Amino acid sequence: MHRVETAESYQLSGVKGSNQSGIRAHNERLLLTILRQGGPMAKADIARSTGLSAQTVSNIMRSLEDDGLIVKGEPQRGRVGQPSIPISLAEDGAFFWGMKIGRRSTELVLINFLGKVIASAHRTYRYPTPEDTVQFARKSVTRIVNTLTSVQREKIAGFGIAMPFQIWRWAREINVAPETMSAWRTFDVAEALEDICGCPVFLENDASAACGAELVFGDATLPRDFLYFYVGYFIGGGVSLGGRLFTGPTGNAGAIGPMPVMDQAGQPTQLLEAASLSCLEREVQAAHGDSESLWASTESWNVPEDVLRDWVNTTANGLSQAIVSALSIIDFEAILIDGWMPVSLRASLVAATRDKLETANMTGLNKPQIREGSIGPDARALGAASLPLSHRFLLDSRASV
């Protein structure tokens, strides 16, 4: 069984291949990484990007094509000389499970080699238990596998899990008795799910996994150094340094939830108490609204506009303070904000956060870009699925310092 506590990312500035015969695997991963980041490329462009000889690139391409991982496109004419043939990743080259285990919901996805979700399952609950999680995984995996062809089943390459570390410690915060969550303390979720799926299993903190999804599947124009916020039941974060996910020695870097901020009344609190969906849930319940709609789907929210407006204002206030504090430690080029919310609400939150920063005291600090995340509500599940993909097929640029 494989346990990883960092996702991998691939910003390849300055990375080159080698023509030595002993590192074929490295060169194959390099080529697959280049194609994932840059899209279809001709053989000559690949050779220039990697520093490999044309012969070496041809040999790698032949091997990857035989393995069904890349495909050749139609010849592109219009230039002097021979028409170029674009090489791209094969959509059905491999498949990966990704499972997000959250405080109010669990989501399972199966993605193809391009990162497209081809099947999914979702359930909500008052709180998660190991028994229910395993039962949901077993039923969902069985149902989805039965829809696949025998060839697709053989190409499933791994299972990634994204969940809050030490989830049992959050019982009081989700208003349940501590003993209700205590079973998680000794439960080996990776081992249990490996027995179900029969493939290598990888584990990552949920917010870090979401940040990793941006690095593997996200916007190619993303700066190399950024701070990532994912607004879920509790807000979490991730840190990218030099284009690589940085999780620190215990895997907990970017845990911005406990960061001290001031609430709207000027009283000290933690960011998770000022900028989480748990806050919105309480406000919806106070307004006698349908709080369960928050967790079923981001497309079916039934929340009064005034409640949403107040939550955006409060959340942006907390985020702006957290951003200023973070910038005093690391000169981030960009701040990304994503979460389990409708796309339109995310846009409003990003705009409100920009406005709050305009009036913040940023003396001595450089103002970063404030951007929307490019993955959306599924970032944690996709980040989980990116773990086996990265481990098996991409360059190992995992940050371990």
Notes on the structure:
The strands form four sheets. A five-stranded mixed β-sheet has the order 5-4-3-6-7, with helices on both faces. It has a five-stranded mixed β-sheet with strand order 10-9-8-13-14, with helices on both faces. 38% of the residues lie in helices and 18% in strands. Helix 12 crosses helix 13. With 401 residues, the protein is of the alpha/beta class. A hairpin with a 2-residue loop joins strand 9 and strand 10. It is built from 14 helices and 14 strands. The chain starts with 23 loop residues before the first helix and ends in an 8-residue tail after the last helix. The longest helix is centred in the last third of the chain and has 23 residues.
Provide a concise account of the structure shown:
This protein has helices at about 25-40, 45-50, 55-65, 130-145, 150-155, 180, 190-195, 205-215, 270-275, 275-285, 295, 305-325, 345-360, 380-395, and strands at about 70, 85-90, 95-100, 105-110, 115-125, 155-165, 200-205, 225-230, 235-240, 245, 260, 270, 335-340, 370.
Q: Give the CATH level 1 class of the largest domain.
A: Alpha Beta
The percent range for helix content is 25-40%
Q: Quick one: how many beta strands?
A: 14
SS content category: alpha/beta
Give me the side-by-side strand order of the main sheet: 5-4-3-6-7
Q: What integer value in Å does the Rg equal?
A: 22 Å
Oligomer: single chain
User: What sort of overall outline do the alpha carbons produce when their principal axes are compared?
Assistant: globular
CATH architecture of the largest domain: 2-Layer Sandwich
N- to C-terminal distance: 23 Å
Give the CATH H-level superfamily of the largest domain: ATPase, nucleotide binding domain
